[in-house]
Amino acid sequence: MEVIFEIEYRTEWGQRLVWCSGERRIAMEYRSDGVWRCRTTLAAGDVEYGYEVEADGRTIRREWRPHRQVIPQRGAARMSVCDRWSDRPTDAPFYTSAFTRAIFARPADGKPFDEGQGRLELQVEAPTVRPDEVLAIAGNAPELGGWQRFVALDDSDFPLWRVVLDAATPFEYKFVRLDRRSRRPIVWEEGENRRCDRLPAAGERIVVAGLRLREANASAWRGAGTALPLFSLRSASGFGTGEFPDLRKLIDWAAATGQRVVQLLPVNDTIRTGTRSDSYPYNAVSSFALHPLYLSLIGAGLQPDARYRRQQRRLNALPAVDYEAVMRLKLDWARLLFRRTWETVRTTDGYAAFETQNRLWLEPYAAFSALRDRFGTADFRQWGEYARYDEQRLRVFRNENRAAIDFYCFLQYHLHSQLSDASRYARQRGVVLKGDIPIGVSPSSADVWQYPHLFHLDGQAGAPPDAFAATGQNWGFPTYDWEAMARDGYGWWRARLRKMGEYFDIYRIDHILGFFRIWEIPADALHGLLGRFRPALPYTREELAAAGFLLPDARYTRPQATDDVLRELFGRAAAEVKRRYVADGTLRPEAATQRGVWRLFGDSPDRRQRRIRDGLLRLLDDVLFLEDRERPGHYHPRIAAQATFAYRRLAPAQQRAFDRLYEEFFYRRHDDFWRDEALRKLPALLDATAMLACGEDLGMIPACVPEVMERLGILSLEIERMPKTAGTTFGDPRQYPYLSVGTTSTHDMSPLRSWWCEDTALTQRYFSEVLHRRGKAPAECTPALCRQIVRRTLDGQSMLAVLPLQDWLATDGGLRRDDPDEERINRPDDPNNYWRYRMHLTIEELLASAEFNRSIKRMLRTSDRTDKP
Predict the structure, then answer these.
(1) Is 841 left (phi over 0), alpha (psi -120 to 50) or beta?
(2) N or C: which end of the chain has fewer CB atoms below 10 A?
(3) Cα torsion 806, 811, 812, 817: sign
């Protein structure tokens, strides 16, 4: 069929519009009044296309997302499409799969769009129309009854609504929301009547596309949810931890209480050592593979015997996760199941489809896992001839070790099937699974092994010092080579997100600041204090000289082991430290790096040795400037340098000069630079899937971050006890941005009741100034106080209020745990934290807690965060 595309777009001199579909590109012709036009021939069926702006032979602007049209098989010889340019709208979150596939999903009737006999099709985008509503058109055209009747639009391609008319004369019209059952009007769209003057000629079909529903506050929907690590979920059918099939019961509980979101921590494979250190869910050995920890053996086909039941009872009775025991026993049973069922599984259509769709990462990951088992380490640098990923060499390895590789493919197939089932079930119940995408991957991972060119392997990602960790955080992850990633359009990231989008409809971007800049720590350092931003704009020697700092100067860039410093750091051991580790006022080579110091002392049980170790580590932090490794002669001020001996030694005028440099560097110098960095990366990644993106934006936040997140429709994270307004102690949920997730605490923080007991002075201020209670704050956060605090977040402006399960349970005196400190998940200042928190009651018991569940539903209804009763 001949198809004419028209779009109104105001270009500047030297620019032109191009129509694009796949590999096809058609230069459009400028007609008049800002209208561009092109003509092409298309076969019947769906066509996806878009418009681009070109200047000097290159694309300078693209649309937010592609258009889609159905080319009809009958009814007309020619089709004209009147389009509108598609920019990211303010209600972009409602176009995500969280709403289109779950929260606002339309009642399924299985009927496709009926093109009808009319030749004028109107298409309007209305993503905020609720499932119990329909969108209709009313107008003065005869077939609309002269404003006397409503014609419902088709929503089979929601959030796109369509209606086909056979109007013979120009007409005026408006869209209106109707109650789905009664068909009574709820609200008319705002503004003047719309007018349709373009009518089809003989043999022509006209599509008026890109219309937008005009409504104020149409996007004011608010919902609630629960955050819980899957390993923490306790069920009668589990095996010492939560498993993917257990999510069905958690989803049932969420639906029963009026919640819409179930949020998990990362669920990717982290097996490196087979020890408790693998419990850290943010240190994945694959960004694609799921963790065998979450496999239901019975769900995969295991017939449990008496031995299995004994092990299950023992593990399920434990108050916390025994990670090592669960993994050892689960993998033993999984190998038995593999031997019994693999020949059947491998021949199924389901496995064949899974293998084909995941080929790019599946076999490399399985080979990585088999080699890890063979060499007893995930550090592929110790694998001899396999240390470097080589497809030809690995082909031979695969042929010789087929069973070892097949085993890990077998596990991933069952894990994929079980999580996919839970995801489908959630959507059916109107509940959304929210995943978590870590900012980094393990340096000993299948990703780094397969794609080393995408990473900077001479640095470590972390975080500057904050309320969680006084010396910063060192996560040990390699940082990304964004320039290398950009060369193929961020293919690795896009594939990673697409894989996640198979299971989740919302995702949390862990440390979203990493897309603006990352805190990179030298490979020989342990503390985050010695890190620097990457990318950054370090000071030149000339800039520092103008401020009175002549570099290089060892006084500013190297630790000064003076007698007074040694006495303050080491006390009575100062003389010993000076004799053994200091020469000419500086540290000897064996103690000149923090990793060198750790090699000398390790995790010594001797108190004196630990004090010397910690003192040397602190001394190595004691510098004012860090030279850029890639650009000699350029310097970064050390974070929190005002706490150093080096700063203390400066004259008052020099201290003021340093403070000015510091303030400029950390709070103003990089704003435009980092904004451009984020806008170069994030749009391509966000558009890779239909998921709703949420950003963890806590810590040292540059001014450009909220602006970029709002522009791209990324929800921020808001916590009352971590306010983002300078000079305030507590945040105000009533002032949170709408595009945000409000919560009472996170997995990196103490839960609500523990926080209450940590700082009595702070608690008293909160009790008096925020809760407006009189008298002395009680020593314990009572259920009534917990309900009041929870209600503050629920009543706030955030689109989503997602609370940890521990804080929901804190509102009920009969259900909550006796010791609130046992509910802590992570301690960011402890690099050896054991991630093992478990619910103290089963999900079955939670489902049966009728009064507690009713109380949550009442709170959500009062806060307008649940559907109509």
Answers:
(1) beta
(2) C
(3) positive
Contact assessment for residue 28 and residue 96, using Cβ atoms and an 8 Å cutoff: no
CB atoms within 10 A of CB 151: 16
C-alpha count within 13 angstroms, C-beta hemisphere, residue 170: 6
Q: What is the DSSP letter of 32?
A: S
Render pLDDT for 418-460 as a digit per residue (tens, 0 to 9).
Answer: 999 999 999 999 999 999 999 999 999 999 999 999 999 999 9
Q: Which residue has the tokens 């306790």?
A: 234
Bridge partners for 18 per DSSP: 27, 52
pLDDT of residue 784: 97
Q: In the structure encoding, which two tokens stand for residue 412, read together?
A: 């991933």
In this structure, how many other beta carbons lie within 10 angstroms of the beta carbon of residue 833? 17
Token reading at 598: 């750790």
Sign of the torsion formed by the C-alpha atoms of 855, 859, 861 and 867:
negative
pLDDT of res. 114? 60
Which residue numbers in the chain have pLDDT < 50?
869
Contact yes or no for 741/734 (Cβ under 8 A): no
Strands of the 261-263 sheet, one edge to the other: 692-695, 506-509, 432-437, 261-263, 223-227, 800-804, 740-743, 716-719
| pLDDT > 70 fraction of the chain, expressed in percent and rounded | 98
Rounded Cα gap, residues 208 and 173, in angstroms: 13
For residues 261 and 431, what is the distance between their CA atoms, to the nearest angstrom?
Answer: 6
Measured in degrees and rounded to the nearest 5, phi and psi for residue 569 equal: -80, -35
What pLDDT score was predicted for residue 869?
A: 43
Q: Which two tokens stand for residue 440?
A: 């980094």
CA distances to 508, 573, 860 from 260, rounded to whole Å, are 16, 59, 11
The string of DSSP codes covering 440-468 is ---SSSHHHHH-GGGEEEEEEEEE---SS
Single-letter amino acid code for the residue at 227: A
Task: Find where tokens 């940590």 sit.
Answer: 758
Give residue 30's pLDDT.
94
**β-strand pairing of 432-437 with 455-463:** unpaired
Helix (H) or strand (E) holding 161: strand 160-165
CB 638, CB 667: distance < 8 Å: no
3-class secondary structure, 590: helix
- Spatial contact of 239 and 845, defined as CB atoms under 8 Å apart: no
SS3 311: helix
Neighbours of 48 (CB within 10 A): 12
pLDDT at 62: 93
Amino acid residing at 474 = N
711 burial type by CB count under 10 A (0-12 exposed, 13-18 middle, 19+ buried): middle
The secondary structure of residue 638, as a DSSP letter, is P
CB 424 within 8 A of CB 305: no
Let me know the angle formed at the C-alpha of 730 by 729 and 736, rounded to the nearest 5 degrees.
135
> How many C-beta neighbours within 10 Å does residue 193 have?
13
Cβ-based neighbours of 428, under 8 Å, separated by 6 or more: none
Q: Which pTM value belongs to this model?
A: 0.93
Torsions phi, psi of 557, nearest 5?
-115, -10
Q: Other CB atoms closer than 10 Å to residue 563's CB: what's the count?
A: 12
3-state helix, strand, coil in the chain (%, to 5): 40, 20, 40
Q: Tell me, what amino acid is at 159?
A: P
Eight-class DSSP state of 473: E
